[in-house]
Amino acid sequence: MSVTKQQVLDGLAKVASPRGVPLTNANVLSEIAVNDGKVFFSINVDAAEARAWEGVRAQAEAAVRAIPGVATALIALTAERKPGGAAPVPHRHDPHGVPHVSTHRPPQIPASGSPMSRQAEIPGIAAVIAVASGKGGVGKSTTALNLALGLRDAGLRVGLLDADIYGPSVPRLTGIREKPQLNDAKKMIPIPRFGLAIMSIGFLVEEETAMIWRGPMVMSAITQMLRDVAWGTLDILVVDMPPGTGDAQLTLAQNVPLKGAIIISTPQDLALIDARRGLAMFRKVNVPVLGIVENMSYFECPHCGTRSDIFGHGGARHEAERLGVPFLGEIPLHMSIRATSDSGTPVVESEPDGPHAAIYRAIGQKVRDQLQGVIAAA
Ligand SMILES: Nc1ncnc2c1ncn2[C@@H]1O[C@H](COP(=O)(O)OP(=O)(O)OP(=O)(O)O)[C@@H](O)[C@H]1O
Ligand SMILES: [Mg+2]
């Protein structure tokens, strides 16, 4: 039996807004996406009233989940700050797992202090780290997954969250096709694969559906994927960020309790300029940059092993030195990295004794060393 949008609307009509109006008449609902038993939408409210709406969001979610045939409901509360209006009160994690509030306006950057003072940590996770790039297509997702496996090989309990809501690639890179189940507490259970706990918006929606998500809804959905997922106990959660340094990325960097960020760049000058932007973004929000990785650093011929520096290799190392951040390693452009990614069997898993796995493990070791204090303290 497939769920219809009308059934969802009927369910929501029974939920009242804080002013007592049925939710369906309150003019706050986004487009409702219903897809194979999965329901997604946001409730868009004025920031000043956001707190009053938190309970409504939870009721709406319960109402939707009660509809026969609904497997998952992801309902985000997003708040828009009116020009000149009061800023939303930043609130810490509440016991109902209500997402944080984000805004349409450029996020406010705290003048000082650690970003950790602004968001609650995620219970059970010692360190959340971001893998980011200023530019798309530089191999961020490939590196994030193989780095997660390198950290696993360093003896850590590791999770991977694909936060690239516009173009989730973790389903392809891992070959995961199944949908996450809910536990008794109605939290999504991450998919276990390769010894990692993995979650991606791509497990829930088709790629085209993911594309329609805009602005605050993106942040809200990501916050929910962080907090409404039963991650269990993890030493490190690696977050594959959406590419770029726009508002969405800045909000994310600001709202996710990050212990550090890793910037992926290729050696080309243009990519390095973008990498610099990425670095500046994390510095603005006081997230420590754990280092830069140069991906597609040099070309390694799969037949003869000859190395060619087709992109002018070494730019990222030089840039890291110039900017005073650690240089974590160079990954060659190699067919087997591409082929293993495309077939859903990442190279660290499928060729564990090969040279590329060794490179990712060495990067993982450097990252682990930097986070040692945080992991040991948890
Ligand atoms: N070191 C490498 N050698 C060969 N191919 C690579 C390497 N790193 C990534 N690739 C390939 O490059 C393509 C882009 O990689 P990936 O999807 O990881 O990039 P991305 O930065 O996450 O992209 P997006 O910006 O779209 O999220 C993929 O086909 C991947 O297999
Ligand atoms: Mg990607």
Give a structural overview:
49% of the residues are buried. The strands form two sheets. Strands 4, 5, 6, 7, 8, 9, 10, 11 and 12 form a nine-stranded mixed beta sheet that branches. A three-stranded mixed beta sheet has the order 1-2-3. About 10% of the residues have low confidence. With 378 residues, it is of the alpha/beta class. The chain has twelve helices and twelve strands. Helix content is 35%, strand content 21%. Adenosine-5'-triphosphate (ATP) binds next to helix 3, strand 10, strand 12 and helix 10.
> Low-confidence parts, pLDDT < 50 over ≥5 residues?
82-118
Shape: elongated
What series of H and E elements makes up the topology?
A: HEEHEEHEHEEHHEHEHEEHEHHH
Coarse structural class = alpha/beta
Task: Provide the helix percentage.
Answer: 25-40%
Percentage of residues in DSSP E strands: 15-25%
Main sheet summary: 9 strands, mixed
Bound molecules: adenosine-5'-triphosphate, magnesium ion
Mean pLDDT: 83
The number of distinct β-strands equals 12
What gap, in angstroms, lies between the N and C termini?
A: 45 Å
The radius of gyration is 21 Å
**How many individual helices?**
12
